Queue: 2 jobs
Job 1
Amino acid sequence: FYLCTMQETILILDFGSQYTQLIARRVRELNVYCEIHPYNKFPAGKNFKGVILSGSPFSVRDENAPFPNLENIRGQIPVLGVCYGAQYLAQSSGGVVAPSKIREYGRANLTFIDQENELLHNLTPGTQVWMSHADTILEVPGNFTIIASTPDVKYAGYKVSGELTYGIQFHPEVYHTSEGLKLLRNFVVSICRCSQSWTPESFVETTVAALKEKLRNDKVVLGLSGGVDSSVTAMLLNRAVGKNLYCIFVDNGLLRKNEFHKVLERYKKLDLNVTGVDARDLFLDALKGVADPELKRKIIGKTFIDVFDAEAHKIQDIQWLAQGTIYP
């Protein structure tokens, strides 16, 4: 489970782009908290300062492409469409999106920038951006204004009149967009008016407080892998519920030499309530003679679930299962 009580939050709607989590990283680098949610799962009951629509491997022209319902978003709070997000906003408003004559992938330069536009404030004329799309916007509705262009992309950026809604066909989150972080700062700070008061330290404090309020005296079971994600989850929960957290660390026989015992000892020094399970023979017997990598993965996953389930059932009155892998 994952809890946060932050009020100043940017919502990122995910359309399946490989860059979605990088958008989140860039926003958090600006000391602004954000959450990623699937495009069709707009979280109810939460107040967001702004919304970013991610890119996507889909084309907006596909029948099965992700089409979000933005009725309660557009015109209410600021919206920034990136790549697919920009194309979707244009097409759903009456514009035309068509296949590019050539796939627009790689570096480009903004030869036109509307210096008066708040999204592009202080961007350098000719600044480098990164393109990654097979479609392009050919026409936009009359209330869309061009704010950026490259030699090959007329509608590299636009603003919707009467709304704080913007679209860009390049990716500000990637390294190759030289002033991408500046553009994102313009959106989340100047347009969405986030105070940049979020820090990892405040995240720990608010998350632990929220966990204490939610869990109280309930018991929680968590599978530890030895990796960062599950270990951070364990430490947050340990601060909140202490010995009511029951951690299970399974040796699957595939760890580095002596890693299981070293990591288990470190977990105990961190005052975690952890049980180490030696299941090496079980895993290796199940994998014996198997060469196909995908089948190996499935065997390892199923065997882990079986071992974890058996150990978890030895604990009485467990109310919560903690997921130690963040984004999936």
Note: Residues 31 and 199 are 6 Å apart (CA to CA).
Job 2
Amino acid sequence: MRKRIFFSGQYRGENGPANVNKNIVAFLPGNIARLKSRNRYLMRLEMICKICWCDVFILSAIGHKQYEIKLARLLKRKIIYIMHGFGVDDSPFFHKMEIRLLPHVDKILCVSSPFCLLAQKRYPQYADKMEVLTNGVAWEKIEGEIIKGGVKRDQNEVILVGGGREIKRNLIVCEAIEQINREREMSLHVSVYGRYSEKDDSPRIKKIPCVTYCGLISHNELLKKYQMSRLFIQNSRIEPFGLAVVEAIIGGCDVLLSKNVGAIDVISSIQPMDIINDFEDIEDIKEKVCYILDHPNNNRIIHGIDREKTSLRKAAERLLEIAERV
């Protein structure tokens, strides 16, 4: 007899977990219960009813679920938590919720293997509960959103996302590009997209001569910028997955990624010179940037991806397989 499964996760909105949840829900079979209410009070009542009904409670991202977790434990339901990031990187509230949640779940699913390694180091006491459920990718959907052709690519343009957030480590990348320009007499230009804040690295990034701090733009505009850029760099200290990497690759960019970027999981053709081993090592960053400028990697990477293996359908199938054996 198959287990009764309840998938609970916010899938309305545009943040990372919401987009992942929307994709998961789209590929779950109809017999998997999910939240349908939009009213927050009805939603809580619906959640209570479905926790009482289910055998396995899947919680995707933290949210405000303290009492629901207590109910699930009281009723001895199996609990699977899909971890999209560390609570401490969001807010003190989510960090507190994470600390309360983790002891009570039966399985922690990390959205990539690089993130799972970081999670096991951060929470070694729960390492035996952790497993990898790599985010699936809507390859065809993303290709449909990125309209290729008719856009001229600037061979000197480097693109960064995440603004001046410390976790993105964009400041050191901009410093590395500025040094490359001086040392190799090049004219590389860096466009930085993301929210500007006086409280993070934004002011220092903005002062670097080769940089234009562009702030927030719409998602559609950003997809066009990928088509106009030569090189996309994501040097994050922690990047649980990083859909922007996939979008940049499909947009035609060469890419350079920190070893902690989870999207590496879906890029089977990645090579050592495509990866920054130490996100604080400016010499490593400079070496890898110069290498990729001389040895473009987009064609190799995009043709080496197994789209079926990394699809949304495969990710949903694996989630259900884990739920059946938990």
Note: DSSP finds 13 helices and twelve strands in the chain.
